[in-house]
Amino acid sequence: MVNKQKKATEFDAIIVGSGPNGLAAAISLALEGLKVKVFEASGTVGGGMRTGELIRSGYLHDICSAIHPMAVSSPFMNRLPLDKYGLEWIHPVHPAAHPLDDEPAAILYNDIHETAFHLDDDEKMYLKSVENIAEKWGLLSSDILAPLRFPSNPADMMKFGLKALQPASLFSKRFNTERAKALFAGMVAHTILPFDKLATAAVGLVFFATAHNKGWPIPKGGSQSIADAMARYLETLGGEIETSAEIKKLSDLPSSSAVLFDLTPRQVLRIVGDDFPLKYRRKLTRFQYGSGVFKVDYILKEPVPWKDHECRRAGTVHVGGTFEQIAASEKKVYDGEHPDDPFVLVAQQSLFDESRTPDEKQTLWAYCHVPNGSKSDMTEKIENQIERFAPGFKDVIDERITMNTIDFQAYNANYIGGDINGGRQNLSQLFCRPTGIYRPYATPAKGIYFCSSSTPPGGGVHGMCGYHAAQLALKNEFGFKKSDLQFNL
Question: Among 38, 97, 163, 192, which residue has the least CB neighbours within 10 Å?
């Protein structure tokens, strides 16, 4: 229960920022009976979960997140009754496809055995690498998507860790076929890191496992549907939300016992300032932001003319060729260069969600990785890569709009230099984000917490950063014990 010895405040807890983690933190606190208010600088809630008519009226484009394997696989998100608040998931026939130059595309099927079978000589190795993680995802996910701690399933986590901590470049040597290596590379590239970095294999394995667990679904009507459902649910719990309310200093906020920031270190430093000790401020200034993204949204006259028609049955298409080609592209970005043949993530939501367009035309979502703060226009390079596997693609483009890293930061202040992950996710910052391993959500200032993707487990629409931050605040500020909690993973 709430600690009754606290001095009277207008709210028990304040959340600054309404991305997936801010809303998750607010819901977690409200579920325990606390009076909670969320402040959002933009005119709508959502952070990276927003959808808009970017080009023409009636054509819906996801501005950042598009496909949501982590949302349905998250131990927090999948327990929320969001279907009662308007959220409807659509599952493409295939979670993902990876086109290749001289052979059929590698396909990530929902069924693990079908995926393995089509990897030919790597069938047994794929099953050996992924099957245990996929089968035990319900148990493993609470430990994988958490701060560093003693796991609740130590034996299974040890098996996972022995694979996951490897560099993707080393792990890929388990596979013999170019098809399996390429499929793995498309998953690993979501790290936005060179493939020779430790723990890059982890993301590849997790994305494989989620496909075989609950799939890679699309929210009907766009990613905004997730944010809107979370907001409606929060309001039924008594939570309040105020949009178009940018917080510039702590005194802008009403009184509360706890403030949780769904913001990155640079922004929190600007707001909290001297309330943090000098040593902690210096640590926050050393926080590293990662590479950025360049994105193109399209209206197409017709679907992408993929050479392999199976690609049209996938919600996500990873465009970049072989393992070596994708690894080289990601290494260039990390080194501050712009690759001529970038790895391109493509989402074709309108093939499966008719609500995205008012007619027979299609919308398409595509982005590549670029150096942080890049102002380069990657449109031609992105389109050349798609054309490589879909001859005639340029002929079906009706209209496009682009966003560089500066545009992304202007859209969402959390995307510093176009970094959509809330900070570089290399091994040194995987668990030690933003400043250390021990209680990463807490700060030295009483009642001030981080709950953003700048804390473990990092980027993605899973809400787990917000959930874990809320649990610590419940313990520290309100006297809750684990046995007191109504919502406990």
Answer: 163
